Amino acid sequence: MPAIRLTLVCLVFFCGIYTMAVWSIAQLAPGQGNGIIVSDSGNTQYINIGQSFISDKYFWPRPSAVEYNGAGSGGSNYGPSNPQHLEEVQARIDTFLIHNPGVQKSEIPSDLVTASGSGIDPHISVQAAKIQVKRIARIRNISENDLAHMIEKYTEKPLLGLFGTERINVLKLNLELDSE
Q1: What pLDDT, on the 0 to 100 scale, is given for residue 158?
Q2: Which end of the chain is least crowded, N or C, by CB within 10 Å?
Q3: How far apart are the C-alpha atoms of 57 and 60, rounded to whole Å?
Q4: pLDDT of residue 132
Q5: 35: which DSSP letter?
Q6: What confidence score (pLDDT) does residue 149 get?
Q7: Contact, 76 vs 67, CB < 8 A?
């Protein structure tokens, strides 16, 4: 009998009370828990889901293990010594070096060559954005100083100044580039 009572209490709590609490908190978030949608040139995109930018005229995002598919969020689950993972990372490093001449392998931030745990992280580090400035400035004929100001404008500070690191939403940054 105690097990049945515990089961009923858990059902009521986790299926009702907890679900309503999470839903209520989500209603306070931007987009009411549905994400933040941006429309640009007829395209609808979500600010909180990583987007694929492969052209040299854009800031490149963090690689995705799920091809930026928000419905299939997830990492590759490869360990750091897995041969296939190491091969993928090396291929990403080689590609980055080809498209960014003058950059040394040791200067490439890890977030430009490794996928996040979710596979759809929309942010890169400030260092990852700065290392791409020369390529974008050359292709778009924009001064590196203007790009540095743009990076500074879109740098998001850690939550409450304590949690996380400074980061940049790649979609916002690239939309700003296209509006120039």
Answers
A1: 86
A2: N
A3: 9
A4: 94
A5: -
A6: 94
A7: no
Task: Show the tokens assigned to 169.
Answer: 């939403």
- Residue 136: the pLDDT is 93
In the chain, where are the structural domains located?
A: 1-34, 36-179
* Nearest residue to 96 via CA among 76, 110, 116: 110
Q: Regarding beta strands 43-46 and 37-40, do their DSSP bridges make them parallel or antiparallel, or are they unpaired?
A: antiparallel
Q: Residue 174: which of 47, 66, 67 has the closest Cα?
A: 47
| Phi/psi of residue 101, nearest 5 degrees | -60, 145
Tell which wins on pLDDT, 73 or 165.
165
Cβ contact 131:105 at 8 Å = no
- Is residue 171 within 8 Å of residue 38, measured between CB atoms? yes
Within 8 A by CB and 6+ apart from 41, the residues are none
Q: Which of 113, 116, 112, 110 is nearest to 66 (CA)?
A: 116
CA atoms within 13 Å, Cβ hemisphere of 103: 22
7-22 tens-digit pLDDT: 999 999 999 999 999 9
Distance CA 109, CA 149 (A): 20
What is the C-alpha to C-alpha distance for residues 63 and 116, in angstroms, rounded to an integer? 8
